[in-house]
Amino acid sequence: MLELARWRIVVVVVVTLLGLAFAAPNFLSPQQRDALPGFLPSNALNLGLDLRGGVHLLLEVDAGVMQTQRLENIADSMGAALRDANPRINFSGRGVVGDAARIRVAPADIDAARRALRDVVRSPTSQADILNLSVAEDGLIEARMAPTYLRELTRQAAQQSIEVIRRRIDPTGTSEVTIIRQGDARIVVQAPGLSDPDELKSRIGQTALMTFHMVRVMDEADAAAGRIPAGAMIVEPYPGVGNARELVERRPRFTGERLVDAAPRNDPQTNQWVLSFQLDSQGARQFCSITRQFTNQRFAILLDNQVLTAPVINEPICGGQGQISGSFTARSASDLAIMLNAGALPAPLSVIEERAVGPGLGQDAIDSGIIAGIISGICVLVLMVLAYGLFGVFACLALAVNMVLLLAAMSMIGAALTLPGIAGLILTMAMAVDANVLIYERMRDEQKAGRLPAIAIDAGFGRAMVAIIDANLTTILAALILFQFGAGPVRGFAWTLSIGVITSVFSAVMISQLLIAWWFRLTRPKTLPI
Fold first, then answer.
1. CA-based nearest residue to 460, from 477, 450, 447
2. In this structure, CATH architecture of domain 208-344
3. If you ran DSSP here, which 8-state letter would residue 449 be given?
4. Helix/strand/coil for 433
5. Is 215 helix (H, G, I), strand (E, B) or coil?
6. What is the reported pTM?
7. Which residues pair with 278 in a beta bridge?
8. What is the pLDDT of residues 363-421, one digit of tens each?
9. CATH architecture designation of domain 6-52+362-523
10. Omega into 87 within 30° of 0, i.e. cis?
11. 64-147 adopts what CATH topology?
12. Pairing mode, if any, of strands 416-417 and 46-47?
């Protein structure tokens, strides 16, 4: 163990220097960080909502819009079921009126229509009725959603929205954004460090459903009179991106559910920002078929029923890749890519409550945490020096490097520091020397057994390693469970603890070993001062 490989020395030196570089911005003012050269790290620790305040939003799933969307799908399913019936049943008047999906059949076909719609009414999983079907004598069939089914849809939409929101505003999962469901239809979002609620609302509030519609040609006289052809709709341009209103088919030919990736890109031919997208294999086949069928015609790409662009299909697009051009900026293209990659919200969300939250304890809590950390560090230093002498000093030097690495890791990944996170830092500081304690106690035992100093040091590091791995592995597993099932402050504590365990093992083993090896080569002691 005292003959250290060169690669170990290089790893310790490089990691320590990188840790100092990434931790240094935490001790600089914002103006000094901004003045740093571009190649130097400039990220500092993010403070959580309890330390620096942030934005609090209370959102609610728009059950009315969701119900209308689902009823339109039900009306389509009813029409498909009647078309597929044997013998086929003629129908008319398919659509949604109020809280019911309607369709009309001939009075003579009422019994056949009931049998054809049996599968539409029943849930495919529970075989319970999810729709209340009413049939009039004149052949008018109305389907209304059962109250229990509507509540379940609302609950599912809220749960799905939580994951979409999280991917939109916290893609890495380290910024300590708190997103929880409240009741069946409401969602609470707390984002630390943000001062502009409008920015957060703009990113959350969009449904981000991308659809592809064929463009319809409209007579100028009809356009002036406001007469819209059946099956068509007029859509407005997307703010800041689209250029003009368009008349498009109401039913989309293709939707963005098959989208697997979207990314901003600078088009080298036009030097403008565009949004490139990639479809999965099934989506690529469908898109190829559509573009082949409508070559030389215009089709519009809509986001939440607003036009992004409406190009001409010059040739079939069969590679599963494409790009959307428009009046994009680097920021707008990046924001749109984030929303598309996060997925579409299952239903629109409305803001019920918003407020900017001031820090609960703020600077006082930070100052108290610093004081507690200093006291803990002094206590650890005194106890280690009293217990192990010079080797205790080595352990404390390794502990100092450990704290630098911990700050550097949290700054590098953008993790937020909360009050529980400060507790995790202090706990890490107190527990970080336990590996050194195991190593040093083993050295003592070996020296008492008459081993030479070099052999005792080697045995201390070699034989204590199993116990060190076991102790820290169980701690990491517990922290991972807290991170997986916890939220907000609990995640902050788990995240800090996990990083602290990894850095403490590195510092206690690698750095302590390096310091002891250098000391041993310089002094060649007859006994260990331990």
1. 447
2. 2-Layer Sandwich (3.30)
3. T
4. coil
5. strand
6. 0.52
7. 261, 321
8. 676 777 778 878 888 888 898 888 888 888 898 888 888 888 888 888 887 666 777 77
9. Up-down Bundle (1.20)
10. yes
11. Aspartate Aminotransferase, domain 1 (3.90.1150)
12. parallel
CB–CB of 330/263 below 8 Å? no
Alpha-carbon torsion, ordered 382, 386, 387, 392, to 10 deg: 60
Q: What is the CA radius of gyration of the chain?
A: 32
DSSP 137: T
Whether the CB-CB separation of 257 and 208 falls below 8 Å is answered with no
- Angle, CA of 165, 124 and 127, to the nearest 5°: 120
300 beta partners: 213
Pseudo-torsion of CA 487, 488, 491, 495, nearest 10°?
150
Note whether 205 and 349 are within 8 A (CB): yes
Beta partners for 261? 278
What region, left, alpha or beta, does residue 173 occupy, with left being phi > 0 and alpha being psi -120 to 50 degrees? left
Give which of 440, 424, 385 is closest to 503, Cα–Cα. Answer: 424
Residue identified by tokens 């689209």 is 242
Closest CA to 134 of 95, 91, 104: 104
Question: For residue 494, what are the contacts with CB-CB under 8 A and spacing of at least 6?
Answer: 424, 479, 480, 482, 483, 486
Rounded-to-integer distance, Cα 323 and Cα 276, Å: 4
Q: What is the pLDDT of residues 277-293, one digit of tens each?
A: 888 887 888 888 888 88
